[in-house]
Amino acid sequence: MPLTAPVLDDRRYADIVRDAKSLIPRYTPEWTDHNPSDPGITLIELYAWMIDMLLYRVNQVPERNYIKFLQLLGVERRPAAPARAELTFTLARADLDHVIIPSGTRVGVGGASAGGAPIVFETDEALIALGASLVALQSFDGVGHRVETEANATPGQSFLAFGPAARSGSTLMLGFDSPITMTSQQMHLAVSIGETGVRPEGRHCDLDVDGTPPPARLMWEFWDGATWQPLGVDRDDTRALTRNGHVYMRGPGAAAKRAQLGQVERPLYWIRVRLVAGEYELPPRLASVLTNTVRATQATTLRHEVLGGSDGRPNQTVRLSATPVLVRERADTVRDASGRSFQITSLRLEIDEGQGFFPWREVEDFYASGPDDADFMLNRATGECTFGDGRHGRIPLANTASPVANIVAREYRVGGGGSGNAGAGAITDLQSSIAGAQGVTNLTAATGGTDEEPIAETKLRAAREVKAKNRAVTAEDFELLAQGTPGARVRRAKALPLRHPAFGEIPIPGVVTVIVVPDTPDPAPRPNDTTLRLVCAHLNTHRLLTTEVHVVPPTYRKVRIQAEVIVRADGDLAEVKRGVEAALSTYLHPLTGGDDGTGWPFGVDIFFSKIYRTILAVPGVDRVRDGELFIWLDDEQQIFCRDVPIGTGALTYSVAHDIRVAYPGSV
User: Same structural domain for residues 137 and 280?
Assistant: First the structure.
């Protein structure tokens, strides 16, 4: 939505008259004639009319002036961002070789809605769902096999893909079961990195990681009954199992044979990934390897929407029916009527000027557009499309054959909101009809959905944006631009000048490291690799040429508070215990913590006295028994009654606290 002035008082004439009449019996009970002919009622209506006019003026200034100035500066509220999830499909029968799940398949959150509308996810790409099921996993470190089937199927657990050493020759073996021969279709494996394993290590913003070699070379193979045969890999998004992603490979077909291998007793079809060469800094730890799983976004795709007709006037505008418009994961390359090639990043807008429909290019402004350039501007928050004036940007020609329908939004996606962060197992309502598909669910929670930016935050950001002037020079500039990265919802950012991720506290001239914290409901929010890429790309367009920029996830320190709280005699033990734990978790949270409630300050020590004060501020708390309160940092008890340093740029988080409660005088 665009910036809109808040309504300070929403009462109107009828409301004021009604409220005034309701007070008559209280103050003048002898006044019993409330008909319009009564002179007193006439006076009430007169004053109500005057007050209504005053309230109208109050609602216009000064807030509206402030909003209009922000709009003049090009500052709008950031739209809601969509949640994303991994959806796992199950087939109706095991004897099916495969079922194609088309791109854009819609799946809803069962029994949930946002503002009365259902919460819908759409798959981002087509999926070939296999009838063969992954029923066994085992790792081989060169010495022995270790079965990891249970760890792969249990949320919260993880396993080492190649064992603790990850030496050459180590393998991860995947066992498939099927009543028919193994498929020859493309196999699609979704790989999730374990929490204690390799994390997104940050990105050097001058370096395209996808263009650099991965840390190791892997070979995918299948068992043909006698030996291991190579298996062609179409694409590996995981960079040799070092980040979340998908692996696409061609199925072995009838060449694969059942066998009993390793520690798994039942005969299965086996596929393995073997570490051929290379060295990992940390052995890859996986949370899960899943089949029949595809990425999905909380969005709805709209197609072939008629926006109106061109009338040949300059600066013409048309409006989309739904907002906010989402940025595409992958841009499509198209050509306009003049043969100019460009990419569609969000909305595919086409106009028929008498020679058929051709796409127009979306631009941020018309400063670089000539009189013949088929360009338009899109406000993704409001859905407003604006065309040029004939000098900067072309004016769409009127089409007499289609005077009111020659401007068409051929395709765009809308969605977003914090309500899309559905828990694990909540996205189950398959809304698209797919023959052979029995059900769908999300084995992990959806993340990344955020609501529209509050006006108060927009005001604070506007002042900093005007100061930064759209360039990254100071640390504050880097933080502001990182938070404003299009397509990524970065809640907080911290720029550390002269800091290089590889050299710790040693100052390195010309280097800036930017820590980004995404807006997610996790206790310790971590940016995924996509967020790191987007922030890097955005900062690259604004930084100085000589500045070396790194974008990294936060360093978190887990905090646990141990104390015995004495509850007042009229207090409830369970309620006070929950209140103390909630207050501590909120105070130490990276997004809601700190003294001002905007997140724990980067690198600030944990002050013993403030933790004490947080506990005492909870209603029902009388005192802390014997004044003993202990702070545990990363599961290590710290010195009693001392402030605890957490390190430069670090943040705190907590998942549980050891709070005991008792009444006065109890043992």
Answer: yes
